[in-house]
Amino acid sequence: MSTTAHVKTREIVKDARGLRAIWRYVLHRIVVHSDTITYGAQCLACEWTVQRSDDAAMHQACMRHTGRQPDHTAFWTYCRAMAYVQPATQGERR
Predict the structure, then answer these.
(1) What positions does the domain C2H2-type occupy (predicted)?
(2) Which of 37, 69, 75, 76 pairs as cysteine with 81 (C-beta 3.0–4.6 A)?
């Protein structure tokens, strides 16, 4: 998965007048490292939390928790991953 956006980037250049900064908009992309994706949930009725490497296992853990505590039916869920911002290549420009 990747997303592209124009980012204001500063570049230091040296010319006849000396050093100066140039600001320009450069197309960058953000890429999620697939080996670092983690899914998690927190019960809104108590302090119970779960963290798993795939979303199906996380959902199953939430359902087991509700099975043990029938009034605990609401959860915050999240997906975390490491991502990198890189300049986009010519083929990615849209």
Answers:
(1) 43-65
(2) 37
**pLDDT at residue 25 is higher than 60:** yes
Strand order from edge to edge, sheet including 38-43: 49-52, 38-43, 75-80
Q: For residue 22, what are the β-bridge partners?
A: 11
Token duo for residue 41:
């949930």
Q: How is the chain split into domains, by residue range? A: 2-89
Rounded mean pLDDT, 65-86: 93
Instruction: Give the mean model confidence (pLDDT) for residues 48-77.
Output: 94
The model's pTM: 0.60
3-state secondary structure the chain: CEEEEEEEEEEEEEECCEEEEEEEEEEEEEEECHHHCEEEEEECCCCCEEEECCHHHHHHHHHHHHHHCCCCCCEEEEEECCEEEEECCHHHCC
